[in-house]
Amino acid sequence: SYELTQPPSVSVSPGQTASIACSGDKLGDKYAYWYQQRPGQSPVLVIYQNSKRPSGIPERFSGSNSGNTATLTISGTQAMDEADYYCQAWDGSTGVFGGGTKLTVL
Amino acid sequence: EVQLVESGGGLVKPGGSLRLSCATSGFTFSYYAMNWVRQAPGKGLEWVSSISTTSSFVYYADSVRGRFTISRDNAKNSLYLQMNSLRAEDTAVYYCARQRDYGDPFDSWGQGTLVTVSS
Q1: Which residues pair with B111 in a beta bridge?
Q2: Residue B89 zone, left/alpha/beta (φ > 0; ψ -120 to 50; rest)
Q3: How far is CA A71 from the centre of its chain?
Q4: Three-state DSSP class for B2?
Q5: How far, CA to CA in Å, does B10 sit from each of A76, B19, B40, B114?
Q6: Burial of A28 (0-12, 13-18, 19+ CB in 10 A)
Q7: Positive or negative CA dihedral for A55, A59, A64, A69?
Q8: Tens digit of each residue's pLDDT (9 = 90 or more) over A50-83
Q9: Which residues on chain B place their C-beta less than 8 Å from a C-beta of chain A?
Q10: With 90 as the cut, is the pLDDT of residue B102 above it?
Q11: How many Cβ atoms from other residues are within 10 Å of residue A88's Cβ?
Q12: Is residue B82 within 8 Å of residue B94, measured between CB atoms?
């Protein structure tokens, strides 16, 4: 079965850039999606089709996808960005999530 | 405003059954594929099942295939998940999630309903 791998945790200082990687076999041939989940809340889509932002998502969120790795980048990270982030792709008709990355802003 | 409201969770014994519902409003339900995604306590997200707009196509994760059945009622704007032969490892918050079309992301989520499988 298809697998997506994320680092368990990433730390960043306020105002700096955070990058979260998601790796999977030939992931660049698929669309990668990214979700933010704050504690006690439901997930929210922050990046779709590798690099597009849904309405209402700040411009500091961006994404890329090439080869075997998709990357979520948060520029000028704010305290409110502290959350769990999940990448997701479709393997045929099966949805696949990465294990999630806890972003700490300190 | 798009709303998805899950219900039907609770405590059930191993081997038991439960039926989850997801009531929706604020969008044309019949235009969207729908999904169930779950999250075990303290763990990550796991896709469970999806259903096409007309129920013609349904898909399941290997972990639930043969035990869970997804369905929808477009007249009632509702999504369902019938869960049979429940196991301890099915304990999770179950979210319903909207999907515009095959291969699209989950663009709206409900608040989730907790299912606990324990004796």
Answers
A1: none
A2: alpha
A3: 7
A4: coil
A5: 42, 10, 14, 6
A6: middle
A7: negative
A8: 999 999 999 999 999 999 999 999 999 999 999 9
A9: 35, 37, 44-47, 50, 57, 59, 61-62, 95, 102-107, 109-112
A10: no
A11: 25
A12: no
Measure CA A10 to chain center.
12
Task: Please name the residues between 25 and 44 in chain A that touch chain B, using a CB distance below 8 Å.
Answer: 31, 33, 35, 37, 42-44
- Per-residue confidence (pLDDT) for residue B60, from 0 to 100: 98
d(CA A63, CA A51): 4
What single-letter amino acid sits at A46? Answer: V
Q: How far is A39 from chain B (nearest CA, A)?
A: 10
Residues B75 and B73: their CA atoms lie apart, in Å, by: 5
Question: Token pair for residue A52?
Answer: 């597009």
- Of A6, A9, A14, A8, the closest CA to residue A75 belongs to A14
SS3 B89: helix
Taking the C-alpha atoms of A19, A24, A26 and A30 in order, what is their torsion angle to the nearest 10 degrees? Answer: -70
Measure the CA–CA gap between A46 and A58, rounded to whole angstroms.
Answer: 9
For residue range B34-53, list pLDDT tens digits in order. 999 999 999 999 999 999 99
C-alpha B106/C-alpha A21 separation (Å) is: 20
Across the A:B interface, residue pairs with CB atoms under 8 Å apart total 56
d(CA B117, CA B39): 14
